[in-house]
Design brief:
Strand content: over 45%
CATH architecture: Beta Barrel
Number of domains: 1
CATH superfamily: Porin
CATH topology: Porin
Largest sheet: 16 strands, antiparallel, barrel
CATH class: Mainly Beta
Shape: globular
Strand order of the largest sheet: 1-2-3-4-5-6-7-9-10-12-13-14-15-16-17-18
Helix content: 10-25%
Length: about 400
Amino acid sequence: MKKAISSFLLILVSMMVFGQENNQQNTYLNSAEKMLATEGNLLIGGYGEVHYNQPLSNTRYNNGKLDVHRVVMLFGYNFDDRTSFVTEVEYEHVKEVYIEQAFLQYELNDFINFRAGLLLVPMGIINEYHEPTTFHGVERPWVDKYIVPTTWREIGMGISGNIIQASLRYQLYIINGFNGFDGAANFSGNSGLRGGRQKGAESFMSSPAFSTRAEYYGFSGFNIGMSGYFGKSQSTLFDGLDKSDNQTIDIADSSRIGIAMFGIDARYRKKGLQLRGQYYLSNHSNTNQYNAFTNNDLGSTMTGGYLEAGFDVLSLADSKHQLIPFARYSVYNTHQNTVKSIQTNQAYNHNIITTGLSWKMSRGAVLKTDLQWIKDNSEENYDPTLNMGIGVMF
């Protein structure tokens, strides 16, 4: 992990140096942001992806998995020049329905927007830019799935904006936190905090959490972001609790943890070259009490990151299409640190190599294929998987 962090910082500095040719704006927009930037009253958009995953083995047969992973419809409405509403309705695996975003935005001035509703937590790249045409590889990076964890959305309110003169975008929200305990533990050493996402579905809050992100895009082709999330997990044991009952309060306190998550990411694109990297650190307090109370093995620190490089070979021919071979090296560890009462599980420390090809036949349509090798530190060999898929965004 230390080598990966050092490599990420070295590439980050190099990207900043290469990007100092001019101060051209280099922002990224996801589907909701594109909708907010579009004129008109009623707006419709969407994205979707279909996947095929085939485990490979020399010694055994494995069935492949085919899945309409998600089909998403976005609807927006501009009430006037300042007031807008955006919602994102997601169908997963054909049979599951979710609301991924649903927020009202009011433009206070050129630099400040007020937002309230179901919001994407602005942590890292993929949690906000998860449309299939915006990233390489058939599946979203595992780091973003188990450390962030994508797609992470909660109900709250706050401000966002773009200070063009400073080449700076920012977001600052107060939101409900993870559901850490609702009669059973929702955190674990294996999946980290992922099971605690409330997703706006009859969410409850025993204490608020805070999320913030800033992106600087003042260097040509270069974008760097820093993210943070701070708060305590939620617990149903606080509902109706007598504030003078110290013994019961102590029990309730054992059912929640404190979370301080930090992230840094960078993206660089110049002609056909595309580079990106991310690193996350999530520190958890009170895990000794939480694990003892829930008979669980949640780590006190989780880390994860990746480095990725791709090159559009058709950029050399000035083509309207893009053909991008890429490679990504990822590491994540949900047991980076544990309390003394919990033994570190090497099966939670993962190394992933992904290499593949993205063919963007149009701006909003992509055909993807990749080979992915996965290994945890309890294994000697990598397990390979062939992935193929299509993705659209409009």
